[in-house]
Amino acid sequence: MNSDINIIGESGLQFFGKISASISHEINNVLAIINENAGLLDDFTIMADKGMPIDPKRLKNVASKILVQIRRADEIVRNMNTFSHTIDQIKADLDLRETVEFVVTLSHRFASMRGITIEIKPPENIVIISTAAFFLENLIWLCLDFAMNITGSAKTISILIEETGSGGRIRFAGLEGLTSELADTFPSDRETALLGMLKSELTVSAEEKELILYLPKLHNL
User: Fold this and answer.
1) Is 13 in a helix, a strand, or coil?
2) pTM given for the model
């Protein structure tokens, strides 16, 4: 039990560190674009000082690009804030679709770097489960990270969220590269510890080329 707690703690720190580092990279990219466009505005100012005409459309275009990046930065910071506060939520009622979408948003940079497209199919009805948000996000991320490594040539992952009689399930489908040998390696100790903590189950099917994560509607930590 103590070993599982240690694994969960270590996994949580790794997850938080990886996502935080990714967010900081995104913010740096935004700042770099804003800096580039601020440099253009400075160039226009020098041109104006020399009496050279400046096309107002060029100024408007630069201003528009800066505003787009400011909105992008605002969204990134809001996601970072939300992610940080999930650690405070020992137990919360979560919309499973929103939780999956949030983890996919946090994972966008990793998917983009691997050239992978992630398609989410929402459930017919809202699926609410009561659980620990941060640990669930960690578990979804680990499944998604594994899935991104075995997409095959299609480089597309379909995530289907479905209601079950006892809660909900998340299916990571279209995993062309999932073989029996790889299926034997997942879940590892990290996923197994989180599955136990969240009273959830995971099936890995090389035949169906998918992972299915089953989550109870309610459980006590």
Assistant:
1) helix
2) 0.91
